[in-house]
Amino acid sequence: MTHDTITLGEVALEVRSKNAGPFWVTMELFMRDEVSYALAADASYVNEEVVAALYGVEAGAVQLFRIPSLNVVKISFPRPISQGSLRDRDMHAGQHHVPLALVRVPAPVA
User: Fold this and answer.
1) What residues contact residue 97 under an 8 Å CB cut-off, 6+ apart?
2) What pLDDT score does 1 carry?
3) DSSP of 7-32
4) Do 102 and 9 contact (CB within 8 A), yes or no?
5) pLDDT tens across 9-46, in order?
6) Distance CA 53, CA 72 (A)
7) What is the domain count for the chain?
8) What gap in Å lies between CA 39 and CA 13, rounded to an integer?
9) What's the CA gap between 94 and 25, in Å, rounded?
10) Which domain holds residue 64?
11) Residue 89 to residue 102: CA distance in whole angstroms
């Protein structure tokens, strides 16, 4: 039996990342409704280990905040390269959300 999947980006209202100071990145999954929030909040799909693997950071440093009243999952982790340093390729962390948005989850049942 196969299950249809969809990306978090496809099921979310918005997935964004932003600079949270020179040493941290914050990402937010704004989900459309309770059903899509349940997918994003499910620790089987979005957890510290998944984020660590996507962004090359220590799982123990990843902070996850699930906010069901807003249908939002917020994720913060230390920047691998500090903001503005010579090797920093995204000073405002505006593109860090892309790998998270591509995480596959089961398609919601209509």
Assistant:
1) 15, 16, 17, 27
2) 38
3) EHHHHEEEEEEEE-STTEEEEEEEES
4) yes
5) 999 999 998 878 788 989 999 999 999 999 999 999 99
6) 21
7) 1
8) 13
9) 9
10) 5-106
11) 20
